């Protein structure tokens, strides 16, 4: 019988348990994306709290394109040495850490976004930000792929244990999958594999640059919940199969983007009953049974018994947790001592309204 506290290994990545801290934009970085003591202390506290793998908040890969203020950066080599300090602190406390890398596109909420060189699949106004991006040329797409790969190499040099490519939630890579934003007539538009081509090329270039043994993760939507305007479950399954064939080691399954509509978000509120927890389970279970890569279930993971049941009755191997670890960074240690421990997080999402992100009950 599998346990949530099993030790596992994925290529060079040794994990002490199956709990993963999902990526959270902490609103803590300096304006240029560089680190400070508060960020290092936050990740050190998470590591001490017992989580097996920490996913960083998303880091922007191009200096001239920043999706949000006070987010991490990885756009040049000046970040490497300071990230080494961060990874060392995490490793000293028997945890692992992966850097999530991202390119924003028109889903940028940065206050200076309209002054930036915002690119997209097509020149279509974003429903939420009202930004109309410039349609990316093929040369610009190749440049973005290269920037993802450069960022991955820097992460490896900084001793991150893995990288996660952010291809979900309506950011640049995700927009190529979404018909509302991708009206291209070339090889990057049309059928699902053409729309996913930029993602495939990113994976291939990253793999070429980091080597065969360095773990590559990807975060992908299974559904935009936008009807015909968005990515559907049927289409996304084909993308999951292909990224698996390309050698992605770990897949984190998500859904929804900011254009999906009011009340729709990957971080749902009012998770009061057991039935409302682990809310992406059914689709993630199907994906996990289809691919060889290890699969992470995200979204509303709150109950140890439920997660243990999923672990032992599906092909899902790992569980990512975000908001409860903002509330209680030591939640995993508490669960190890007593699996009946009930998280204090009530999924109110008020933590996302604070700066830096923090549980309002801990302020």
Describe the structure.
- The chain is α/β, with parallel strands linked by helices and 363 residues long.
- It has a single domain (8-362), classed as Aldolase class I (TIM Barrel), CATH 3.20.20.
- The protein is 31% helix and 14% strand.
- The protein has eleven helices and 14 strands.
- The protein has helices spanning 37-48, 80-92, 138-157, 172-177, 192-195, 197-210, 233-245, 281-288, 304-313, 323-327, 331-337, and strands at residues 8-10, 13-15, 19-21, 53-55, 59-60, 72-73, 96-102, 119-120, 134-135, 162-167, 216-221, 250-254, 294-297, 318-321.
- The strands form three sheets. It has an eight-stranded parallel β-barrel with strand order 3-4-7-10-11-12-13-14, surrounded by six helices.
- Helix 7 links the parallel strand 11 and strand 12 (250-254).
- Helix 1 (37-48) runs parallel beside helix 2 and helix 3 (138-157) packs parallel to helix 6 (197-210).
- The radius of gyration is 19 Å and the shape is globular.
- 52% of the residues are buried.
């Amino acid at each position: 019988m599998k346990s949530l506290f099993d030790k596992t290994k994925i290529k060079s990545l040794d994990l002490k348990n199956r709990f993963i801290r999902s990526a959270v934009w902490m609103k803590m970085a300096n304006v240029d994306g560089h680190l400070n003591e508060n960020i290092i202390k936050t990740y050190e506290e998470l590591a001490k709290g017992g989580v097996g793998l920490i996913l960083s908040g998303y880091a922007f890969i191009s200096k001239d394109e920043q999706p949000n203020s006070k987010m991490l950066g990885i756009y040049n080599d000046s970040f490497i040495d300071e990230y080494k300090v961060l990874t060392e602190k995490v490793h000293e406390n028997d945890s692992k850490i992966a850097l999530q890398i991202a390119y924003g596109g028109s889903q940028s909420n940065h206050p200076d976004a309209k002054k930036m060189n915002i690119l997209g699949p097509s020149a279509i106004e974003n429903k939420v930000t009202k930004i109309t991006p410039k349609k990316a040329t093929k040369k610009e797409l190749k440049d973005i792929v290269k920037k993802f790969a450069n960022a991955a190499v820097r992460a490896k040099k900084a001793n991150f244990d893995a990288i996660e490519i952010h291809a979900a939630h309506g950011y640049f890579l995700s927009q190529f999958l979404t018909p509302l934003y991708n009206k291209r007539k070339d090889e990057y538009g049309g059928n699902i594999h053409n729309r996913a081509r930029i993602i495939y090329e990113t994976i291939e270039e990253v793999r070429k640059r980091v080597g065969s043994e360095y773990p590559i993760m990807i975060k992908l939507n299974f559904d935009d919940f936008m009807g015909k305007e968005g990515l559907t479950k049927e289409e996304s399954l084909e993308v999951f199969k292909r990224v698996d064939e390309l050698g992605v080691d770990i897949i984190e399954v998500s859904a929804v983007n900011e254009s999906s509509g009011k009340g729709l978000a990957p971080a749902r509120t009012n998770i009061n009953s057991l039935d409302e927890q682990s809310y992406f389970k059914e689709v993630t279970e199907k994906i996990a049974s289809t691919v060889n890569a290890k699969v992470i279930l995200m979204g509303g993971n709150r109950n140890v018994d439920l997660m243990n049941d999923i672990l032992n009755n599906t092909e899902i191997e790992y569980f990512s947790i975000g908001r409860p670890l903002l509330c209680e960074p030591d939640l995993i240690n508490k669960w190890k001592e007593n699996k009946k421990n009930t998280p204090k997080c009530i999924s109110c999402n008020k933590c996302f309204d604070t700066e830096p992100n923090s549980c309002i009950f801990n302020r």
